[in-house]
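[job 0412] stage=complex_fold ligand=zinc ion status=START
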Amino acid sequence: MSFFLDFLFPSRCYSCQKIGQYICPKCRVKLINKGIDPFLSKKLEASLSLFKYHPPLIKVLQDLKYHFITHLADELVEIAVKEIETRYPSLLKYWQANNYLLIPIPLHQKRLNWRGFNQSALLAKKLAYNLKLQYSDQILFRLKYTQPQAKIKNKSFRATNISNSFSVSTLVTPPWRGPVGNVKITFSQFTNIILFDDIITTGSTIKSAVDTLTKHNFKSIWALSLAG
Ligand SMILES: [Zn+2]
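[job 0412] stage=complex_fold status=DONE, emitting C-alpha coordinates
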Protein backbone atom coordinates (compact mmCIF):
# COMPACT_ATOMS: atom_id res chain seq x y z
CA MET A 1 0.00 0.00 0.00
CA SER A 2 2.70 2.49 0.94
CA PHE A 3 4.66 1.58 -2.20
CA PHE A 4 1.54 2.32 -4.22
CA LEU A 5 1.06 5.67 -2.44
CA ASP A 6 4.73 6.53 -2.97
CA PHE A 7 4.22 5.87 -6.65
CA LEU A 8 1.15 8.13 -6.85
CA PHE A 9 2.37 10.83 -4.48
CA PRO A 10 6.18 10.73 -4.37
CA SER A 11 7.85 12.49 -1.43
CA ARG A 12 9.13 15.87 -2.51
CA CYS A 13 11.61 18.03 -0.56
CA TYR A 14 9.80 20.88 1.22
CA SER A 15 12.78 23.09 0.57
CA CYS A 16 14.25 22.38 -2.87
CA GLN A 17 11.39 20.29 -4.43
CA LYS A 18 13.72 17.38 -5.24
CA ILE A 19 11.83 14.06 -5.37
CA GLY A 20 12.73 11.27 -2.91
CA GLN A 21 12.45 12.65 0.62
CA TYR A 22 10.45 15.35 2.44
CA ILE A 23 13.65 17.01 3.60
CA CYS A 24 16.50 15.90 1.35
CA PRO A 25 20.01 15.32 2.75
CA LYS A 26 21.29 18.63 1.28
CA CYS A 27 18.49 20.59 2.97
CA ARG A 28 18.78 18.66 6.25
CA VAL A 29 22.24 20.07 6.89
CA LYS A 30 20.81 23.59 6.45
CA LEU A 31 18.38 23.18 9.39
CA ILE A 32 19.49 25.63 12.08
CA ASN A 33 20.48 24.17 15.44
CA LYS A 34 18.70 25.69 18.45
CA GLY A 35 20.04 24.02 21.60
CA ILE A 36 19.57 23.83 25.36
CA ASP A 37 17.72 26.59 27.24
CA PRO A 38 18.26 26.25 31.01
CA PHE A 39 15.90 29.11 31.90
CA LEU A 40 12.48 28.15 30.50
CA SER A 41 11.15 27.20 33.95
CA LYS A 42 12.77 26.89 37.39
CA LYS A 43 11.06 23.53 37.79
CA LEU A 44 12.72 22.14 34.65
CA GLU A 45 16.28 20.85 34.43
CA ALA A 46 16.39 22.49 31.01
CA SER A 47 14.62 22.57 27.69
CA LEU A 48 16.17 21.20 24.50
CA SER A 49 14.80 22.35 21.14
CA LEU A 50 16.68 20.66 18.33
CA PHE A 51 16.08 23.16 15.52
CA LYS A 52 14.89 26.72 15.04
CA TYR A 53 11.26 26.99 13.95
CA HIS A 54 12.10 28.23 10.45
CA PRO A 55 11.19 27.01 6.93
CA PRO A 56 11.02 24.25 5.85
CA LEU A 57 10.17 22.94 9.36
CA ILE A 58 7.19 25.32 9.76
CA LYS A 59 5.34 23.83 6.80
CA VAL A 60 6.46 20.28 7.59
CA LEU A 61 5.12 20.46 11.16
CA GLN A 62 1.88 22.14 10.06
CA ASP A 63 1.27 19.43 7.48
CA LEU A 64 2.00 16.72 10.03
CA LYS A 65 -0.45 18.28 12.49
CA TYR A 66 -3.41 18.35 10.12
CA HIS A 67 -2.71 15.38 7.84
CA PHE A 68 -1.61 12.04 9.17
CA ILE A 69 1.50 11.43 7.05
CA THR A 70 3.39 8.53 8.59
CA HIS A 71 6.39 8.84 6.27
CA LEU A 72 6.77 12.50 7.22
CA ALA A 73 6.80 11.55 10.93
CA ASP A 74 9.36 8.80 10.21
CA GLU A 75 11.66 11.28 8.48
CA LEU A 76 11.37 13.85 11.27
CA VAL A 77 12.18 11.19 13.85
CA GLU A 78 15.17 9.99 11.78
CA ILE A 79 16.47 13.58 11.66
CA ALA A 80 15.84 14.13 15.40
CA VAL A 81 17.52 10.85 16.41
CA LYS A 82 20.63 11.65 14.35
CA GLU A 83 20.77 15.17 15.83
CA ILE A 84 20.50 13.91 19.43
CA GLU A 85 23.00 11.07 18.91
CA THR A 86 25.62 13.27 17.29
CA ARG A 87 25.16 16.58 19.12
CA TYR A 88 24.01 15.45 22.59
CA PRO A 89 25.43 11.91 23.12
CA SER A 90 26.22 12.43 26.84
CA LEU A 91 22.75 13.78 27.55
CA LEU A 92 21.19 10.79 25.81
CA LYS A 93 23.34 8.37 27.84
CA TYR A 94 22.32 10.22 31.01
CA TRP A 95 18.61 9.92 30.10
CA GLN A 96 18.98 6.21 29.33
CA ALA A 97 21.00 5.43 32.48
CA ASN A 98 18.54 7.29 34.72
CA ASN A 99 15.37 5.71 33.38
CA TYR A 100 13.89 8.89 31.92
CA LEU A 101 10.37 8.32 30.63
CA LEU A 102 9.38 10.18 27.46
CA ILE A 103 5.83 11.51 27.58
CA PRO A 104 4.08 13.65 24.97
CA ILE A 105 2.09 16.81 25.69
CA PRO A 106 -1.44 15.41 25.43
CA LEU A 107 -4.38 16.78 23.45
CA HIS A 108 -7.80 17.22 25.02
CA GLN A 109 -10.01 14.23 24.17
CA LYS A 110 -12.36 16.50 22.20
CA ARG A 111 -9.55 17.79 19.98
CA LEU A 112 -8.12 14.28 19.68
CA ASN A 113 -11.49 13.02 18.42
CA TRP A 114 -11.70 15.84 15.92
CA ARG A 115 -8.13 15.57 14.61
CA GLY A 116 -7.86 11.80 14.93
CA PHE A 117 -4.34 11.69 16.33
CA ASN A 118 -1.86 13.63 18.44
CA GLN A 119 1.18 14.53 16.34
CA SER A 120 3.38 14.95 19.45
CA ALA A 121 2.45 11.48 20.68
CA LEU A 122 3.10 10.01 17.23
CA LEU A 123 6.59 11.57 17.15
CA ALA A 124 7.40 10.89 20.83
CA LYS A 125 6.56 7.19 20.57
CA LYS A 126 8.79 6.66 17.54
CA LEU A 127 11.50 8.82 19.10
CA ALA A 128 11.46 6.83 22.37
CA TYR A 129 11.72 3.56 20.46
CA ASN A 130 14.72 4.75 18.44
CA LEU A 131 16.49 6.41 21.38
CA LYS A 132 15.92 3.34 23.62
CA LEU A 133 13.89 5.30 26.15
CA GLN A 134 10.63 4.22 27.75
CA TYR A 135 7.42 5.92 26.63
CA SER A 136 3.98 6.45 28.07
CA ASP A 137 0.93 8.46 27.06
CA GLN A 138 -1.00 7.27 30.12
CA ILE A 139 0.37 9.65 32.74
CA LEU A 140 -0.44 13.19 31.70
CA PHE A 141 -3.92 14.20 30.54
CA ARG A 142 -5.58 17.40 29.46
CA LEU A 143 -8.60 18.39 31.53
CA LYS A 144 -9.39 21.83 30.21
CA TYR A 145 -10.48 22.39 26.63
CA THR A 146 -8.54 25.47 25.57
CA GLN A 147 -8.13 27.61 22.47
CA PRO A 148 -5.15 26.52 20.35
CA GLN A 149 -2.11 28.40 21.72
CA ALA A 150 -0.97 29.38 18.23
CA LYS A 151 -4.13 31.48 17.80
CA ILE A 152 -3.36 33.63 20.84
CA LYS A 153 -0.82 36.35 20.16
CA ASN A 154 -0.50 37.92 23.64
CA LYS A 155 2.06 36.07 25.79
CA SER A 156 0.28 36.54 29.13
CA PHE A 157 -3.06 35.48 27.61
CA ARG A 158 -1.32 32.33 26.39
CA ALA A 159 -0.16 31.55 29.92
CA THR A 160 -3.66 32.14 31.38
CA ASN A 161 -5.32 30.12 28.63
CA ILE A 162 -3.24 27.04 29.35
CA SER A 163 -2.83 27.29 33.16
CA ASN A 164 -4.19 24.37 35.21
CA SER A 165 -5.03 22.46 32.04
CA PHE A 166 -3.35 19.20 32.91
CA SER A 167 -3.83 16.34 35.31
CA VAL A 168 -1.73 13.33 36.23
CA SER A 169 -3.48 10.02 36.19
CA THR A 170 -3.44 8.10 39.43
CA LEU A 171 -5.40 5.38 37.69
CA VAL A 172 -2.48 4.07 35.66
CA THR A 173 -2.60 0.33 36.09
CA PRO A 174 0.92 -0.95 36.32
CA PRO A 175 2.55 -2.72 34.73
CA TRP A 176 2.19 -1.51 31.19
CA ARG A 177 4.44 -2.45 28.33
CA GLY A 178 7.11 -0.08 27.15
CA PRO A 179 8.36 -0.09 23.58
CA VAL A 180 11.84 -1.29 24.54
CA GLY A 181 12.06 -5.05 24.51
CA ASN A 182 8.53 -5.55 25.90
CA VAL A 183 9.86 -5.21 29.44
CA LYS A 184 7.14 -4.85 32.04
CA ILE A 185 7.57 -1.58 33.89
CA THR A 186 5.74 0.01 36.76
CA PHE A 187 4.72 3.57 37.48
CA SER A 188 6.83 3.85 40.66
CA GLN A 189 10.03 3.02 38.74
CA PHE A 190 9.87 6.38 37.05
CA THR A 191 10.69 9.60 38.77
CA ASN A 192 12.36 11.24 35.79
CA ILE A 193 10.44 12.63 32.85
CA ILE A 194 11.18 14.07 29.42
CA LEU A 195 8.17 16.07 28.26
CA PHE A 196 7.92 16.14 24.49
CA ASP A 197 6.13 18.63 22.25
CA ASP A 198 6.65 19.15 18.51
CA ILE A 199 7.19 22.90 18.96
CA ILE A 200 8.06 24.94 22.05
CA THR A 201 7.63 28.68 21.53
CA THR A 202 6.79 30.73 24.64
CA GLY A 203 6.87 27.57 26.75
CA SER A 204 3.45 28.28 28.37
CA THR A 205 2.16 24.77 27.63
CA ILE A 206 5.31 23.09 28.94
CA LYS A 207 5.34 25.25 32.10
CA SER A 208 1.72 24.37 32.86
CA ALA A 209 2.41 20.64 32.39
CA VAL A 210 5.54 20.86 34.56
CA ASP A 211 3.57 22.61 37.33
CA THR A 212 1.20 19.65 37.39
CA LEU A 213 3.91 16.97 37.21
CA THR A 214 5.98 18.46 40.05
CA LYS A 215 3.01 18.03 42.38
CA HIS A 216 3.29 14.27 41.85
CA ASN A 217 6.79 13.30 43.04
CA PHE A 218 8.54 13.46 39.71
CA LYS A 219 12.11 14.44 40.60
CA SER A 220 13.67 15.59 37.39
CA ILE A 221 11.93 16.94 34.31
CA TRP A 222 13.42 17.86 30.94
CA ALA A 223 11.56 19.37 28.01
CA LEU A 224 12.33 18.29 24.46
CA SER A 225 11.02 19.57 21.13
CA LEU A 226 11.84 19.30 17.46
CA ALA A 227 11.58 23.03 16.93
CA GLY A 228 11.60 26.13 19.07
ZN1 LIG B 1 16.02 19.62 -0.54
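DSSP finds nine helices and ten strands in the chain.
[job 0412] exit 0
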